[in-house]
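Progress against Task 2.4 (sequence-to-structure conversion) is shown through the following example record, which the project officer requested during the mid-term review.
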Amino acid sequence: MAGKLLTRLALLAALLSIATFEAACGSAGDSTGTGSGSGGTINVALNSGIATLDPAYGCFPQYDYWIIKNTYDTLVQYGSERDQNGQAEIKPSLAKNWKISDDGKTYTFNLRDDVKFASGNPMTAADVVYGFERLMDKGGCADYVLRLGDPKAVESVTATGKHQVTFRINRPSPIFLGQLTQTGLSPIDRKQLQANGGLTQKGDNWMASHTIGTGAYEVTSYQPDSQIVLKARDDYWQGKPENPGVNVRIVSDPTTLNTLVQSNEVDLAYGIHPKDVDRLAEGRQSLSQPGPWYIYLGLNTKKAPFDDIKLRQAARLALDRPAMADELAQGHATLVEGPMPPTMPFRPDIPLVEQNVDEARKMVSEAGAEGTRVTIDVKAGDQLESQVAEVIQSSLNEVGFDVTVAKLGTSAFYGKGGGFKSQAYLSRDGTPFNDPAYYLGFQVKCGNAFNWTQYCDKRVDHLLEVGRNSQDPEVRRKAYGEISEIATRDAALIPIFGVTPNVIGAKSLHGFVAYDDLEPVFWPMSVSG
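Structure tokens generated for the chain above:
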């Protein structure tokens, strides 16, 4: 399982460096507008490329999922109401209702009978089964979301009627419905895929650049590092979209991104640097919201010098995180301690470990680690992450380390981190599924393919199982509280500050709704003249 996931991560990251390729149905110029109110088309600027359109393999929530979210639907979806633990309500979507068995292990969904794929083919339970069996067989990121790394978690997915599908899981779960809300866990048009390679590598290649979902849009042009064009579907089951289409431009240069906003050439811009948000929001809408996302420093516990807990703790003591939040994020940041990002349910309020340069320097000296060379890997192209890395470099040098910052391309960064070859790395990370069972299940679990720090604590693993399986919110709260305390002590993951992609909207943009997963839903949006 881990090997397949790592291979897929490297392949997806490599796709970002491919020049361009287009879906069959048009060119990038077909829907290009000139800004707000240009014929109703929503013009969006995104600060990073898209790796894939395949829901089974989409891995990067802030990028891939944004297109998949708008071209595929899920059985259930999150609503706007929350319970006392901060968890959002779950509402019908493709499934009009559902029933859970008394033993909590069988979920039966009754599907809507008026849903069509973009091809015009009607959606049936067979398409739901086909989509879920495919994603489990491929072993990509969607499979992890569904089974959380446990190949036995889902025993079967069965069509129990033309418009009824039944899931059988191996044990009761407090989060299974929440998992099914996640982008990528979707039915696919099996007839379309079977006509274009089916479950073979040819089919996978075709799916990477084509969309065959029930969503409000279909992709008519796909240039992953340049532009993606979405055409609205008049026959969408939730009603005709409020706009005729969406034109997504990939703009990795921050100056160019700011210029597009200032010149009113885009209706919606993602990835604005925090220092520019307040200025660019004048006369426009600031649409950012807090979410379960942060920038953190990961320290590889299996590589020197950070195989020594004292040196990990020294690295944390060297950092003035409040100053970094103030100076680099310009007030658009949240300070947190522990492995759980801001806004996550059950996150305990752990006091921030304050900077103590003298103590950090003493710990480095006592370990005989003065002058030890450390390389911090960071993705090239993200201005904020690069600035954070440079401050960390200076801070660690001050207490005795000899630090180099390596700015790597996307493919190299994910390949090195996913191969556990980084001594240390800086990542802007978080989760579209706002539940600690999902996030901590890969971030601090022994042996997980996405646990780049290789952190492992048997007590933490036990508590992860308790939190994942208990139906009692208080039991879950206690488990995640203890996990956070242990992980904070061990300092393999050092949160710098919580920060979400800053979003600016034109004054003429209407219908934007902010969700926990930070994935925009385009079909209710419109622009006025």
